[in-house]
Amino acid sequence: MCRTPTQGVWVETVNVTAQTKAEVSNVQDSTRQDVLKRLNYIEGHLAGIRRMIEEDKYCPDVLKQTFAVRRAIEKMEVMILEGHLHTCVATGIRDGREDEVISELMELYNLAGRA
Fold first, then answer.
1. Whole-prediction pTM value?
2. What's the alpha-carbon Rg for the chain, to the nearest Å?
3. Which of 13, 38, 81, 107 is 20 to 30 A distant from 89 in Cα terms?
């Protein structure tokens, strides 16, 4: 399922040209579940960091944990982006919205600080 802007309103569309609805749904459900698991891990880790700060733990130990959270967030971003590339981007290109799709990807690339 892809979200596309239509007259200022986001609508969800599914293009099932090469895949059945069940296959599309399963891929997205799998990605969604993996991302939610990662978020639970991140939330738990952040709560642990909060406790460390409240308990005045040694700064390098706290920083090691913040680095771990940052890596976990980066992994989650990769999971989301990969799912987006395999579903929404592919659908957008098949539907003739190449310029829109490329523009969106460039925006993400720039936000990531890699341009």
1. 0.71
2. 18
3. 38
Question: Angle at which helices 59-84 and 21-54 pack, to 10 degrees?
Answer: 170
Distance CA 78, CA 11 (A): 24
Token pair 């600080």: residue: 113
| Two tokens, residue 109 | 């690339």
Q: For residue 42, what are the contacts with CB-CB under 8 A and spacing of at least 6?
A: 69, 72, 73, 76
> Measured between alpha carbons, how far is residue 101 from residues 4, 49, 92, 93, 107 in Å?
10, 38, 6, 7, 10
> Tens of pLDDT along 78-106?
999 999 999 999 999 999 999 999 999 99
